[in-house]
Write a structure and sequence with these properties.
- It is a single chain.
- This protein is α+β, with helices and mostly antiparallel strands.
- It has three domains: 122 residues, no CATH class; 113 residues, no CATH class; 220 residues, no CATH class.
- Strands 28, 29, 31, 32 and 33 form a five-stranded antiparallel β-sheet that branches. Strands 19-27-26-20 form a four-stranded antiparallel β-sheet. The protein has a three-stranded mixed β-sheet with strand order 2-1-8.
- Helix 1 runs antiparallel to helix 3.
- It comes from Boudabousia liubingyangii.
- InterPro entries: Glycopeptide_resist_protein, Vancomycin_resist_VanW, YoaR-like_PG-bd.
- This is YoaR-like putative peptidoglycan binding domain-containing protein.
- Pfam families: PG_binding_4, VanW.
């Protein structure tokens, strides 16, 4: 066989062999398939063929040819990148990470879950095994593994269990704070207790951890008086006069750092009962902080007249109760929708008139647009930043042109930002046929407002409507366009100006039925 034919024959044999992946497995039964492309081993065939077929008078080579040259070793070139990739795959799919022993808590009982040895694959041995199998034509090879012990042994976990978990869950524990107490059963202890892995002195171990928020909730549920909660300072309106400050109260909380030691002390104490160490818990807004917000005078007030109707009156009364006492700190945003809460019958709202698609109908929360208008104008003249509002589609004479808004839960809202260094406190009430909203604070902005004349006036026309829910109505106001401007200054420095332009649609006459 000449050199060319020999080379071709060997290449064909290698191609056929490479078409089937090599299955590498462990004695434990795990396996992974490695393709020839992944191995990327290159055999230097031509030098070996040349050595066999080249003519030479060298006595050593002549004698070798005469006696038969025996096996010729083939030179194999490997790709460092392919080797790294294959060995990562082998480690991922054949190695088994050890599993640390654990202390698990279930149904109010703690128990040790035994650790499991891992299996480690030697990278050099694995690569050598793959090379030899590939060169010899084997399609399956076995690589040895070494046992790898877990960082936390079963014996270590058992010792920790005996020192902590076994004592802790041996029975109920009674915790006392002054004259109040609560008894926790093992199943209740399990709700906030766990054992987690932690590094200590360079080695992993299991330590007991307590979810303090879960424990706080449990204690509050079982005995609300055990840990009195802090109460923020706030303002209340006992009349239509100035607000009254209600001072903050300090609460009590568990000492987080002492808690693990305290509970273990309870588990070992006589009668499994101890007096808990507690720490003061400050309110988010204490009395002094509230005083510093400067709630001391009315900086803006606005009133709108309202037609008295039973359902409408109820909605307006509830809305004024909801916004009264709402505090907006500097840079905070007030949302009227959020202040009112859910517009539901359960929340005190009822059905009353609204304008929808040009028709006057009844809907839950009807009339709340008046709360929007009155609150908007109070905020407007306080100089606050109006972030979101939308006027009515049709003009209503009881409201200022272009300086009004409507409210629709989940769709339309009034949002106002406190752009002063002082707090803002809202007060709302109904009196003498008027709705009034006041803004209490320390005066900061000087406000100048101007409203344009009506332009682009469009008289109402007659609409014929065939909807099943059609409600007839007479012609109302004309449509028109109007602009509103506001300038605010503080100590001669200008703030952000407002310029609004709005076009109202005419309030057409609605006739229910087809056009004649």
């Amino acid at each position: 066989m000449d050199a060319k034919t020999a080379t071709s024959t060997l290449n064909e044999a290698l191609e056929k062999r490479n078409s089937t992946p090599l299955n590498l497995k462990t004695k434990q039964g795990k396996s992974t398939a490695i393709s020839a492309d992944e191995l990327d081993l290159k055999v230097e065939i031509e030098p070996a063929i040349q050595k066999l077929t080249t003519f030479s008078l060298n006595p050593k080579l002549v004698w070798a040819h005469f006696m038969g040259m025996g096996d010729i070793s083939l030179e194999v070139k490997e790709s460092p990148k392919a080797k790294e990739t294959v060995l990562k795959k082998v480690e991922t799919e054949l190695a088994q990470a050890p599993q640390n022993a654990q202390i698990v808590i279930q149904d109010g009982r703690a128990q040790v879950k035994a650790g499991v040895n891992g299996e480690k694959v030697d990278a050099n041995e694995a690569w050598k095994t793959l090379q030899e199998a590939w060169l010899s034509g084997q399609r399956e090879a076995t690589v040895g593994t070494q046992a790898e012990a877990p960082a936390i042994s079963t014996e270590a976990a058992q010792k920790i269990y005996q020192e902590t978990a076994e004592k802790l869950f041996a029975g109920p524990i009674t915790l006392q704070v002054k004259d109040q107490s609560v008894t926790l059963e093992p199943k209740e202890l399990a709700k906030f207790t766990s054992f987690v892995e932690e590094e200590k002195d360079g080695a992993k171990t299991l330590v007991v951890k307590y979810d303090q928020s879960a424990l706080d909730e449990l204690l509050k549920e079982k005995n609300p008086k055990l840990l009195p909660q802090p109460k923020d300072a706030y303002y209340v309106f006992k009349s239509l006069d100035a607000p009254t400050l209600v001072e903050s109260q300090t609460g009590q909380q568990l000492d987080a750092e002492a808690l693990p030691e305290e509970l273990m002390r309870a588990a070992s104490a006589e009668g499994r009962k101890i007096e808990l160490k507690t720490a003061e818990k400050a309110p988010e807004l204490d009395t002094e902080a509230l005083k510093k917000l400067g709630i001391k005078e009315i900086v803006a007030e606005f009133s709108t007249p309202y037609p008295s109707e039973p359902g409408r009156d109820q909605n307006l009364r509830v809305s004024m109760e909801r916004i009264t006492g709402k505090l907006v700190k500097p840079d905070e945003v007030f949302s009227l929708e959020a202040a009112l809460g859910p517009i539901t019958k359960e929340a005190g709202f009822t059905e009353a008139g609204v304008i929808s698609d040009g028709m006057h109908i009844d809907a839950l929360g009807g009339g709340l647009s008046q709360s929007c208008v009155t609150t908007l104008n109070a905020a407007f003249f306080a100089g606050l930043d109006i972030l979101e509002h939308k006027p009515h589609s049709q003009y209503l004479r009881r409201y200022p042109m272009g300086r009004e808004c409507t409210l629709w839960s989940g769709v339309l809202d009034l949002k106002v930002k406190n752009n002063t260094p002082h707090g803002i406190l809202f007060q709302g009430f109904l009196k003498d046929g008027k709705m009034t909203v006041r803004v209490w604070s320390t005066k900061y902005w000087d406000v100048k407002e101007s409203t344009s004349e009506k332009t682009d006036i469009v008289p109402p026309k007659t609409e014929y409507r065939t909807e099943r829910n059609c409600e007839p109505s007479g012609a109302g106001n004309s449509g028109f366009t109007v602009s509103v401007d506001r300038e605010i200054t503080h100590d001669g420095k200008k703030g952000k100006p407002l310029h609004w332009t709005w076009t109202y649609k005419p309030a057409n006459q609605i006739v229910c039925g087809p056009k004649p």
